[in-house]
Amino acid sequence: MAGAGKKTFTAGEVLTASDVNTYLMEQSVMYFAGTAARSSAIPTPTTGMTSYIGVTGTASIPQIETYTGSAWQTPYGATLVASRSFTSAASVAFDNVFSANYTNYEIFWNLLGASAGDVVFQWRLTGADVATSYASTGVVISTTTGAVSAYGANASTLSYLAQVGTARMSGSVKCFSPFVASVTHITTHHSHGTNGVHLGGSYNLNTGALDGFKISAGVNVTGEIQVYGYRKS
Amino acid sequence: MAEESKAVIVNVATGEVTERPLTADEIAQREAMQAEAEARQAEADAKATARESALAKLAALGLTADEVAAL
């Protein structure tokens, strides 16, 4: 089993099958094409076993996971769980990106608009948009005058995220416990390109375990999105 | 000819990526969103223009920039 630690072999010592299994096989980093293949190969993992899960699709992210005694987990800290670049898209949705594997998530985006247009955020649940019960507010601070303009919306179909233009825009969205079946919150901020800085937040009253999100734009956008997961234990 | 608008859907569980044209409903929602954004921008532009005009009138009355800023 993993956890045997280290053994220093001496010259002429017999290398037993048990030693190979205990010190080498079960304490190596094992490669599997997916978690199903790993479960098949290791039906009863032991604490400390470590594996590398390879790419199973064009959008998969390889992961190193260690068995804690009750579950396979990625290392502590931010873990990249999804990444995608795209060109001339009206919307980009990520399904099955939120799960019980992580508690909180952060989405980073970089977008270039075909022209000026709004960018909005919606949750997704089992492959469908959540298009009701958003309440959002925020401020946009002008970089030229420092003027602050505030907005707020209740019972809306989406959460405002940004206004893109033909200069590159960057921002992030913090998602708090989206996979917990309760009201779900985000905070968002982004650099408004030549216009200013936007700080905002929203909540949604859907009490399902939200497993995805969609970013849509009023104009076609080119860019990339990354999603990182954070565990609390 | 207008560029076709597409939806990109990434299934993180399987690694599959789907690209498809927007549905009629999605196109309608998008047009409404864009119209709302343009109206909001027009309102903001009008406010900025009115502010500049007000500042110019205050300056014409003899107020200094510091006095205007103190208002």
Can you lay out the helices and strands and say which pair or pack?
The complex is a heterodimer of chains A (233) and B (71).
Chain A: H1 17-24, E1 29-32, H2 35-41, E2 50-53, E3 63-67, E4 72-73, E5 79-95, E6 104-113, E7 117-125, E8 128-129, E9 134-142, E10 148-156, E11 159-164, E12 169-176, E13 184-191, E14 196-204, E15 212-230
Parallel strand pairs in A: 1-2
Antiparallel strand pairs in A: 2-3, 3-4, 5-15, 6-12, 6-15, 7-8, 7-11, 7-15, 9-10, 9-14, 12-13, 13-14
Chain B: E1 6-11, E2 16-21, H1 24-60, H2 65-70
Antiparallel strand pairs in B: 1-2
Describe the 3D structure.
- The complex is a heterodimer of chains A (233) and B (71).
- Chain A has 233 residues and is mainly beta.
- Chain A folds into 2 domains: 57 residues, no CATH class; 152 residues, Jelly Rolls (Sandwich), CATH 2.60.120.
- Chain A is 6% helix and 52% strand.
- Chain A contains 2 helices and 15 strands.
- In chain A, strands 5, 6, 7, 8, 9, 10, 11, 12, 13, 14 and 15 form an 11-stranded antiparallel sheet that branches.
- In chain A, strand 13 and strand 14 form a beta hairpin.
- Chain B has a two-stranded antiparallel ribbon with strand order 1-2.
- Classes of the chains: A mainly beta (233), B alpha+beta (71).
- Chains A and B meet through strand 5, strand 7 and strand 15 of A and strand 1, strand 2 and helix 1 of B.
Gross geometry of chain A: elongated
Silhouette of chain B: elongated
Record field, number of beta strands of chain A = 15
**Span from first to last CA of chain B?**
52 Å
Query: Element order, helices and strands of chain B?
Result: EEHH
Number of strands of chain B: 2
Q: Based on helices, strands and strand pairing, what is the structural class of chain B?
A: alpha+beta
Helix content of chain B: 55-70%
Helix content of chain A: under 10%
Q: What is the C-alpha radius of gyration of chain A, as a whole number of Å?
A: 23 Å
As for the number of domains of chain A, it is 2
Euclidean distance between termini CA atoms of chain A: 24 Å
